[in-house]
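Hi there,

I know you've been waiting on this one. I reran it after we fixed the sequence typo, so this is the corrected version. Both the input and the resulting structure follow.
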Amino acid sequence: MLIYLLLLYGYKLAIVPIFASGNFTWQPNQIKIIEGAILTITTTLFLPTKFRKTSDILLHLQFLLPILPMLVIYGAEDHSRLFIYQTFIAFMIIILVSSSLQIKVIRTLGFNFKTLHMMILFISLTIISSIIFFGGFNYFNLDFSLVYLFRDDAASNLPNFFGYLSPLTSKVLLPTTLLLALINNNKLYAMISIIGSVMIFGLTAHKGPLFYPIIILFIYYISKYKNVVYLLLSGYVTTIIISIIGLLQGGLGIWIGGLLLRRAYFVPSQLNFAYYDFFSNGHFLWWSESKISLGIVDSPYNIDSPHLIGREFFGNILTNANTGWIGSGYMNAGGFGIILYAIIISIMMQLLNIYGMLIGPRIVLSITIIPILAMMISSDLPSAFLNQGIIISILICSFLPYYKYSLYQKQKIIF
């Protein structure tokens, strides 16, 4: 409840006055603000308070990033009651089903740890070498301020299949190589994976590869503490407070607060409502933009959905307004799409819980966190599974050697 009020306070006093041009408005509906508070309290009653399973942290991240800010915007901008309750029900399905569903894990081929580690590194280096072979060095750039100038040219210079391989390498393979190297105290592999991440950044002009390894290592090390849930909540609150202070003071604080409070917290939630507002008055896509439709369904629009929302919501067709599973679920099939996605996510989380029991929830959480975050805030579910790396990260977990673990004892890999 405190976090909800703090977000509402920051939204009214800092976000709306400074970022009104980004379609952040203050049109409060008092009843919906109270509803948002009630839904927040209700949800927290069902969230885990300790880290015992992989899904425990993932459920908190799902709530804190897109859903809690959605509850704030719901009342602050007087958005659709139907959509917020569809989202609430879907999240409750994830919480309840992921903790109660019983599924069996298919045992994969057991790889020796060193062999698997070497294979992941070899595949990563092969992909990087292939990018270079196809002329990737023509647009190599390490200057942060120039990434947007190089990005489109770097992508168009490469065959289309690198649009699938590059995210898998930067979000799963290289960070996993670094994680396993540190667990096994392999300094050479750790150094190579770091250099590989820098190379992917320079070759693709995407900033993410520089930060993904940091996120994975942060998750791995913070999750060793018994009170990790409270540390996560404390960090969330601290970020909000720092952002509000920075935005109100101006100068560099506006950049910091804009990056954290506006971009990380409110923009993904805002885009979920933008997708609802547009597609509730238009035609659903029925997965016509996804490969899973096999080209049977044609899109009713002449541009892809992120640029369509960019044009309709921001007035700029060049804006790539991606959204996560909530907005994209509604885009594809309305409320049915959101519920369907929730069921699939529930099954995925239970699968991760089982692998967590076998190889340790810290390891499973760390390996899968990046593609799952993409699923939460910036990627359609099929794309998150196929393109962003959820399936690959789960496969890696299935190939790791199993061992009996104690969650808060030092983990030792069995070779």
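Quick highlight: DSSP finds 16 helices and no strands in the chain.

Best,
R. S.
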